[in-house]
Amino acid sequence: MKKNDKNQVVIFDTTLRDGEQCPGATMNLHEKMEVARQLARLNVDIIEAGFPIASPGDFDAVNQIAKTIKGPVICGLARTIEKDIVRAGEALAPAKRRRIHTFSSGSDIHLEKMMRTTRAVNIERSAKAVKLARTFTDDVEYSAQDTTRSDREYLVDLYTACAEAGATTLNIPDTVGYAIPDEYAELIAFLIDRVKVPGLIYSVHCHDDLGMAVANSLAAVKAGARQVECTINGIGERAGNTSLEEVVMAMRTRGDSLGNVWTGINTKEIMRSSRLVSRMTGFVVQRNKAVVGANAFAHESGIHQDGVLKHRQTYEIMVPEDIGLSGTELVLGKHSGRHALGAHMHKLGFVLNEEELNAVYEKFKVLADRKKVVFDDDLMSLMQEQASDAPKVFALDYLRVTAGTDALSTATVRLKKGDESFLDAACGDGPVDATLKVIDRITGIHGELEDYSLQAVTKGEDAVGEVSVRVKFGVEIVSAKGSSTDIVEASAKAYLNAMNRYLFMKKFASKKKITAR
Ligand code: MN
Question: Is the dihedral of CA 228, 230, 234, 238 positive or negative?
Fold first, then answer.
């Protein structure tokens, strides 16, 4: 089938901006780079890499991604303020293809109560910002927040002014997740009809507060939108954004009823992207989530199983291979060498330098000793550990616990901080509680466990257990993961990773980050 370009829907990924902005999903530079590399393999059209003015960390991430990631257009966010645009332009300068995404608001409630400005001033400022952005790149996107609660005639004036000033993509966000599909589609069609500037791409950015982000995005596509903003696993502010994997697989599976639209996404990279983002952010994917949940392709009932065995299409509308799920592959064992590990990591998409490979290899050998077979997922888990302990302040050096039905649990822990070692012991209500108490005592930092979950990474009794935690330190909430074949050790690592992240954030976050949309 010959593809018609007018039917291509541009995939704009904002995992590293809107996704990363949600509480607890903060990633360090190393983690952001891993995600950006994976997004390039997934073949997204645009990576919104961050909000350069928000913090020096955001600037560095956008700048590094602009320098090193080849393929997608790299985008940076900016308010309609001169210093934001200049900063975004600087961060994006090394990118071969770059976009500045500037935004203000469209609703009276935002303009009056939040931005303390008028409709007329907002139009003037927005158009001026677009013009300035055009001096850095000819690819400029403009968004007015809260369009679904805005006056439509005002939106026509605002978007027309920005398009005339040089914006090439007009994004119509449902910032508060308020729209329903028919009404949102109608708004998009209305603006396409009324903004009389030719050659524009209309974009949608939906939030999932009412569980309709994907449905709203698809309705908008049917109405003529040709860019969808989305995130891996749907992470993002509050209930999250449109989920990339769902919207892409819906267009692939049901493009026929959406006007034969298509995307350039390499869907075979979807599963890997989902797992990577889950590991980097500590946000667990629910088992029954569409497309990427653990049960998405599991047929339990006898009738369904019988049907699928006789003919897959009886109950399957997609095949697991489409999203890169080819079952658990046996990969490496304790006799595999450093070279084999490096080659396999490369196949999984990790580019490791000598030092990184050595560090992963050490961890791999320990794991292969405990576990007969090492699966791809085990290796992904090792990589996640490697990435998240980059800013390591405290490291687990020794752990011993006693636990049982008739005994009070006790834990002895030794932590390392640089060259120093600290040893202490405590009792607790179970081995995990005892272990975390010792860690609090040694570090002098008190964390409150808000959430704790344990998942086996692969099958079998000797599987690696992955512990995800959300820990509250003062007012900050930090997510982290830790993995080991020993679940108490995995818990200790997860908790320490959270603490290290907290210490890292405290050190670099001199002021509260500016956040958007
Ligand atoms: Mn948003």
Answer: negative
